[in-house]
UniProtKB/TrEMBL annotation, chains A, B:
Belongs to the NAD synthetase family. The lineage of its organism: Bacteria, Pseudomonadati, Bacteroidota, Flavobacteriia, Flavobacteriales. This is Glutamine-dependent NAD(+) synthetase. GO terms for biological process: NAD+ biosynthetic process. Keywords: ATP-binding, Ligase, NAD, Nucleotide-binding. It comes from Maribacter polysiphoniae.
Amino acid sequence: MTDTLTIALGQMDVVPGRPRLNVDNMLRMIQEAKEQSVDLICFPEMCVGGYLLGDKFLEDAYCEELMSYNEELLAASNDIAIAYGNIYVNGSTEGHHPNKDGRSRKYNAVYVMQNGTYAERVQENGILPTGVQPKTLLPNYRFFDDERYFFSLYDVAIDYGKDLSALLSPFLISKGDQRIPIGMELCEDLWCHDYRADGEPINITKILIAAGAESIVNLSASPWTFMKNNARDRRVKYLREQSGSFVKYYYVNCVGVQNNGKNVITFDGGSTVYNEEGDPCILSKKGWEEDLMVIDEKASFLPTKRPRGNTIREKYLAIFNGLKNSSNMLGDDPHFVIGLSGGIDSSLVATLLVLAFGKEKVVGVNMPSQYNSDKTKGAAKALAENLGIEYLVLPIEDMVKSNTHILQLDGKPLSEFNLENVQAKIRGASILSNLSAKYRYFFTNNGNKVEIALGYATLYGDWGGAITPIGDLTKTEVADMCHYINDEVFGKEIIPELLLPDALWRFGEAQIQPTAELKSNQVDPMKFGYHCKLLEEITNFRKKSIEDIMTWYVEGNLHEKLGIGLDMMLRWHIDDPKEFLRDLEWFYDTIQKNVFKRVQSPPIILTSKSSYGYDIRESILPVLKTKKFKALKERIMAMDTYMAK
Amino acid sequence: MTDTLTIALGQMDVVPGRPRLNVDNMLRMIQEAKEQSVDLICFPEMCVGGYLLGDKFLEDAYCEELMSYNEELLAASNDIAIAYGNIYVNGSTEGHHPNKDGRSRKYNAVYVMQNGTYAERVQENGILPTGVQPKTLLPNYRFFDDERYFFSLYDVAIDYGKDLSALLSPFLISKGDQRIPIGMELCEDLWCHDYRADGEPINITKILIAAGAESIVNLSASPWTFMKNNARDRRVKYLREQSGSFVKYYYVNCVGVQNNGKNVITFDGGSTVYNEEGDPCILSKKGWEEDLMVIDEKASFLPTKRPRGNTIREKYLAIFNGLKNSSNMLGDDPHFVIGLSGGIDSSLVATLLVLAFGKEKVVGVNMPSQYNSDKTKGAAKALAENLGIEYLVLPIEDMVKSNTHILQLDGKPLSEFNLENVQAKIRGASILSNLSAKYRYFFTNNGNKVEIALGYATLYGDWGGAITPIGDLTKTEVADMCHYINDEVFGKEIIPELLLPDALWRFGEAQIQPTAELKSNQVDPMKFGYHCKLLEEITNFRKKSIEDIMTWYVEGNLHEKLGIGLDMMLRWHIDDPKEFLRDLEWFYDTIQKNVFKRVQSPPIILTSKSSYGYDIRESILPVLKTKKFKALKERIMAMDTYMAK
C-alpha cells in the first residue's frame, strides 16, 4: 500500500530558460522534504528548463544543457526519491532514432530516481532508458506545439510495433524492504478522453493501475485558464470511472509565467491529491505561489469541495501575476511610462501596473491635442493622483503641426482619418516609445480584446508597446475588473467611477463615454456589452461562426446564447434585423481585415480560452461570404423584428 | 496497364480563401482536359480553399463552405475522372468522430470522382467514405501545422484498430470496360522516410502498389524552397528502392502565394512525372506558372535531367512571385511608397517592387537628416532615376527638432542613441506610414535577415511596413541579388554599383559602405560575409548552436564549415580568438535579445529553409550560457590564433 510512502508535491515557480535557478529551487525543496522525512518528491513537467521554450527545443546543445542537470539531481536523490520533468534527447539519427522531421528524437519526459540511481520499472521493456518515461499524449491545439518538438510514447510503441501497455509500467520506489510501484504521467496524459485507439480513449491511468501502480503521479505544466481546476476534477473522476479500480492520484503543477513571444501564459499551481474515489481531497492553498505539499499517512483523504472560482478575480490574478513574474520579458525591476488618455482601458492598465510593481515604478503621461476634453484630462489626472504616480502632460499640437506640414508638402491635404492616425502615432511612436527608451522604461499597449479584434487602434501608435496586459479581456470584462479593483482590492474609488458604465453600457451626463478623442465628438463605434459577447463566441475554443450567430437570431435565442438580456439588444437596436445584419457584417469583416495589425502586435497576457496572439493563428485572408451566410442574410432581411423565443 | 489512361496534371494557382475563384479555374481546366480526351485530371492538395488557412480550419462553417464545392466538381466529372484536394469534415463529435482536441475531426483529403459519382476503391473498408482518402502523414515542423488541424489516416487506423494497409486502397478509374486502380497520395505521404512503424518507414507508395495501384498520383501543396525539386527526385527514387516494384508516379503541385500572417510562402509548381524506375521523365516547363500537363500514351517516359537550380535566380523568382501574387495581403493593384536611404537594401527592395508591379506603382522617398551624406542622397536619386519612379525628398530636421523638444521637456537630454531612434521613427511612423495611409499605398520593411536577426532596425521606425520582401536574405544574398538583377534581368547598371562590395565585403574609396546614417561616421557593426554564413548555420533546418561554431573554431574547420575563405576570416580579424569570441558572443546574444522585436515584425517572404516569422518560433527568453559554452570559451581564450586544419 502506498499509504506507507510520504509523498511531497513541489509546486514550484518554473522560470523558462533558467535551469540553474530552477534546479537550485528544486534542490532547496528536496532538502526541505528530506527534513520532513518525505519518501518521494514530485516536481512539475519540464521544470528544469521550462515548457514554453519555442524552437530552443530544436537546438541540441540547449537540450543537452538541460539534461546536464540530471546529474545534480541524481546526486541529490540520496535518501529520497525524486520525480521531475525534463527533456530527454537521443542525439542519434540512426535506426529507431530519427524524429518525424528527420532531426533528433526528443521526449518530454518524466525522470524518476532514488538513492543516486534511476528507478527501475515493474517491467522493463528494453526500449526506454531506465528511470525515464516520455509523455504519451501530446497536446497540439491552442498555443500548444508538443507535436512540433516531442516524440510521444505512443509513437515509440508504433515504431517498435509494441502495445502501449508494453512500455507503460510503474516505477519502483524503495522504502525499507518494500518496492512500491508508482505510476507516472505527464500533464495531457490525464486529459485522454479525446485521444483514441481501438475505439476507446487511450487511458494511461488505467494501463498503469493494471500494471500494478499503487499510486499515480501526474506532473504538469498546465497553464491557468478559468475553471480549469474544476474541469480537471471532472477528468480525474472520469478516469476513475473508466479505469474500474482506482488509486490515489497526485497532481503537481508549476506556478510562474512563460511566454511564446505572442502570448504571456500564467501557471496557477492548483496541485491536488485525489482519493481512490477520484475526488479531490487535498488542495494546494497557495494559488499562483510556490507550495511544498507534504502528504503523509496522517493526511485526510476525505473528499473536499473546491471553491468555485470568481471569473474576474481569477483573471485579475492572472494579469497581476503575469506582469509581476514576467522577468524574462521585462527584466527584474521594470519601470513603465504609460499613456493616460483618461479612458477606462489605460486607467485599468495603469492601476494593474501599480498593483504589480508599485507606484514609484509607473509614470503617467497625458498627451492632449485640441480634441481632448477637460473631462478626460481631468480623469487622467485624477487617476494619477489616486494611484500616487508621477504624472506628465505633454501637449502634442506642435508635433501635429510639423508632421502635418511635411505630409502636405505635396500640396494635397490629409483627410480627417489621416489626421487621427497622425495623432496616435505621435503619442505612441514619437513620444511614448522614445520616452521609454530614454528612461529605459517600458510602455504598454492598453488595448482590450474588442479593440484588438477590430483593429481599433493605430499601428505604430497606440498599437505598440512591450506587453498588452488587458488584450484578452473584453470591454465588459475591463469594466468588471475596474469595479473589482475599486471594490475588492482598494476598497475605494481609485479608477474614476465616471468612466464606468451601467449594466447596459449607458453613461450619465457627467460621465465619459469610450472615445479615441482623435476628432471632434468622436465616440467608439462598438456596441459594448453585445459585441463583447459576440467576440467571446467567435473566439471561443469551439469557434462559432457568423452563420451560427445568424442562425441564433433567426431562431430567436441569440440573447440566450450570448447570455445578454433583451434590454441590451434594444439598447443597441439589434432587435432591428437590418441593424443587426449591418452591424454583424461590419463586426465580422472588420475582424478579418485586421489580421495584418495583429501580426505586428506585442505579446498579450492570456486570460481567455482563445487569445489573439499564438493561441489563435491567423492567415491574412479575404472575407469569405458563404452560401449559408447569404441564405441566412436573405432570411433575416425578410424579418420585421427579432422574435425572442 | 495505366498507359491506357491519359492523365492530366492541373498545376493551378491556388488563392487561399477564394474557393469560387479556384473552382472556376478547376472547371476551366477540366473543360480543357475533356477537349484533349483526358481520362483523369489531378489537381493539387487543398486546391479548393488553400492550404495555409490558419485557424479558419477550426471554423466548421468555413470548412462546410469549402466542401459545398464538391457538388459542382462532381457534376463536372461527366466523361472524366477528377482528383483534387479539399477538407473533409465529419461534424459529429460522437463515437469515433471527435478530434484529439475534442472538436470536429477534419481530414486533409483527396477526393476522387468520375461520371458524377465518387470513385470506389479496389477494396472498400466500411470506415472511410467512398471517393475520399485522408492524408496519412502530417508535417508538423517549420511553418507546417497539419497536426493542429487534421486527423491523419494513420490516426484513423489506430482508432479503428486496423492496419494502415486495410484503409489504403487504390481508387478505380473506368475506361471503357476497364477499371484501372490508381493510388492516391497527398504531399508529405511521399516524404515518408522519417515516419516509422514497426521499425520501418511508413511507405504509403509501397502499400498502394501492393494493393494493385497501376499508377500513383501525389497531390501536393508543396512550398518552394531552394533545390526542393531535386530533393523530391531523390525521395521518389528512394520510394522506388524501398518498394520492390514501382509504377509511374505523377506529382502535381500548385503555384501561387499563401501566407500564415508572419510569412509569405510561395509555390513554384514543379509538377513531374516519374517513370517505373523512379526517374523524372516529364517536367512542367512553367515554374511559378499555371500549367495543364497532359500525359498521354505517346509521351516519352525516358529519364530526363532536371536542370540544377541557381540559388539567387530561384530566390529572386520567389520574391518576385511572392510580391506579384500576394493579392490577399496587398490587394489587386497595390502601390508603394518606399524609403530610399541610398543603401543597398532599400535599393534592392525598390527594384523588386518595380519589377513586380511596374514603375508607375512605386514612389521613392528620401528623408535626409543632417547625417546623410551627399553620396547616399545621390545614390538614392540615381536609383530612382534608373528605375524611372517618382521621387520625393522630405528632409526631417524640423520634425527632429519638435520631437526632441517634447522629449526634453523634463530638462534631461536625449542620448545619441535615443536621437538615432527618434530619426528612424520619424521616417517610418511619422512619414512613411502616414504617407502610405494618405495615398492608400503600402510601405515596406526593407530589412534583410541579418538585420532582423540582430534587431538592427528601430521598432516603429524602419522595422514597420506591410511586408518584408528581403527579410529572409542574408546581406551577402542581397548583394548577390543586386548583381543578378543588374546583370541578368536588366543587363545594365540599375542598382548603383557603388553600393556593391567586392567578394570580401570591401568597398573602394568612392563607394558607400552599409550605414544607418543616424549619427556621424556611422558604419554597420556587422561582419558581412562572415555573419551571413554564421546566421545561415544558426537558422538552418538542422540548427547549429554557438557551441557548434566554437567547436569548429577549435577544430580549425570553421572556414570550411561556413564555406568562406581564410581571407574572409582575416578581413574581419576572426583569426584572433579573442575577437572571434567577443564578436560571436555579441552576435548570438544580440539575436536572442531581439526576439521581442520580431514578435512585432511584418510578414517576411520566405526564401530560406528557416525564416524568421512563423517558421522559427521564438519565446522571449534570457541568454543561456551552457557549461559546454563555458568550457569551449576557456579553450579558445587560451588559443593564440585560429589554426586552419
